[in-house]
Write a structure and sequence with these properties.
208 residues; alpha+beta; Lipocalin; 2 domains; nine-stranded antiparallel beta sheet; 2 helices; 9 strands
Length: 208
């Protein structure tokens, strides 16, 4: 009887000595478990976003705007891999001159037929700071007037915990891309349009 009691006590003491070590090992393994990679998702708010454009001519520089329809961009800050698109309403383009704008939509943009201008992203080169300011080069495909064009677009972005704003500027060689030049014998228009995107919206992060 005493022999059996001594054996039970020995087993209990042995378990008491070994269990804390096992628990510590388990806790250590858990603390070193890899965390799920996260990406940031930027949603564009059309009410806070505008596309500005300008083109020089022999008489003066024409300035105008387009409305942003929608946009969502997902970026992995670690790798720069990106996806998503920014969509602009081609029919919303205006320069403050009705006759000029009618000609722009009918003869140049042909916006009744090509109703959207789209920039699809696949990469964001540069250091992405969340929160903070980032200087980036965005790579993707710019779709205009039914044709796709590869582009690298320099951009600046300021990101906070749940919101962001950014600016991107680039040139569109519209005649080289197949659009009509509005020049005539009295007016000479440069074949390149300067474009600036002013965007803002909400930000969230999610596991990949």
């Amino acid at each position: 009887m005493m022999y059996g009691l001594r054996n039970c006590i020995a087993v209990v003491m042995l378990l008491g000595l070994t269990m804390p070590g096992r628990q510590a090992a388990t806790s250590q393994q858990s603390s070193h478990a890899p965390r799920a990679a996260r990406q940031i998702v930027l949603s564009v708010d059309p009410a806070k976003s505008t596309v500005h454009w300008s083109v020089e001519s022999s008489l003066h520089t024409v300035h105008g705007t387009f409305h942003v329809k929608r946009g969502t961009i997902s970026v992995d800050p670690a790798t720069g891999k990106a996806s998503g698109e920014i969509v602009v309403d081609a029919a919303s383009g205006e320069s403050g001159n009705d006759s000029r704008d009618r000609r722009m939509h009918k003869e140049i943009l042909e916006s009744p037929r090509y109703s959207e201008i789209v920039f699809r992203l696949d990469r964001a080169d540069g250091t992405i700071a969340v929160p903070g300011n980032s200087t980036l080069k965005l790579h993707g495909i710019f779709s205009l007037h039914g044709a796709d064009h590869e582009m690298n677009v320099p951009a600046e972005a300021t990101m906070k915990a749940d919101e962001w704003k950014g600016t991107a500027a680039f040139k569109v060689p519209y005649t080289e891309w197949g659009l009509k030049n509005p020049s005539n014998f009295l007016l000479k228009v440069k074949p390149v349009v300067d474009v600036q995107l002013d965007l803002a919206g909400s930000l969230r992060s999610e596991a990949q």
